[in-house]
Amino acid sequence: MSKRRVFEINAVFDTPRGALWRKGCLLRVRQAGRLGILTYKGAAGAGRYKEREELEVEVADPRTLNEVLARLDFVPAFRYEKYRTEYRRPGEAGVAMLDETPIGTYLELEGAHGWIDRNARRMGFSESDYSTASYYSLYAGYCRLHGLPVTHMTWDQQASTDTGAKRRPHRRP
Question: 133: domain range?
């Protein structure tokens, strides 16, 4: 293990009219333990691997950053939570990330195509198991499958669904 299991709160921001989402881009503020990260992701290319520009900067106070974005007319479009554990082999450039989410556990392999393919095979996966779906897409599919409204992928939302409580609708990221 290269990074211990940490709880993450992720807030995806967009303009009120969804300009970033329409271009396939993403603006996210992540709080992972005490660490805050602002991430911009460009549009993803098509193919079996998800390749996109990604720019990140650490921030000391993610909550204040959320307020700054709000004052710049960005709105929180989607919130998701997960527990993430990172694994890295010494001398290898790729990283495996195990994400425990309210809708299931996912494995993300990040690295060169050859590294991804080799390590996926080592773990018993084939190319037909690959997915480039975003957490929003995975969550929306889960909600459709279970007849639930698409809101936010958070542990408290999942608990309220399990007890039959009502949930508020939201816009897509």
Answer: 3-162
